[in-house]
Amino acid sequence: MKGAAWWKRRLAGIKGRAVVGLTGPIASGKSLALACFARHGAFCVSADAVSAEVLTSPACYNKILRKFSPYKILTNGTLDKKKLAAEVFGSPAKRRWLEKLLHPEILRRTYSLITDSPKKIAVMEAPLLFEAGLQDCFMLTVCLAAPARTLEERALARGWSRAGYRARAKAQLPPERKYALASLVLDNSGRPEELDGKIGFLCGFLKDLVSRKDSK
Description:
With 216 residues, this protein is an alpha/beta fold. It contains 11 helices and 7 strands. The protein folds into 2 domains: 19-42 and 122-205, P-loop containing nucleotide triphosphate hydrolases (Rossmann fold), CATH 3.40.50.300; 47-118, Rossmann fold (3-Layer(aba) Sandwich), CATH 3.40.50. The strands form 2 sheets. The protein has a 5-stranded parallel beta sheet, sandwiched between helices. The mean pLDDT is 93.
């Protein structure tokens, strides 16, 4: 099987369209932003959704069961993603093992989905885009931003405990580091329609950019 580095190069080499990486801190509004991109004509892929499919594919599923104690990660005979996340959260070695298993297949499927789509803009939403070293796969990386207090309040409103939110946030790069690494930072501390307007403007720019490149 081709490794993650090989598929990263394949993603970076896609021609004839604008491939965008979308990320942001926890509760920054990534799902909302992805829906906005889709509304404005982009082909959209969620890394989490692809990951969920990969987890239950026979090859990965069987390797995971051999690596971890089934009673720790199964519920009624089915892989429990929350239990698996809890199992790897406190173990860097287990997390690296799981990432090495999943990332190549996630990237392969994402590449296939994007290249099969006729749309000129493709967006991959990946919460751990920078942590996974994916930034070079994209023409542009977009990071959503909001004040720290706003992010925490949103997370609590979604049912997170304060301790749980802070522990998960600490496991990611600090928001300021994500903002510094991104090609473009979009403030999402306001109303949803404000974010939609910003994304609509960006999609218009990207469509024009791709059209001009195609005409050369």
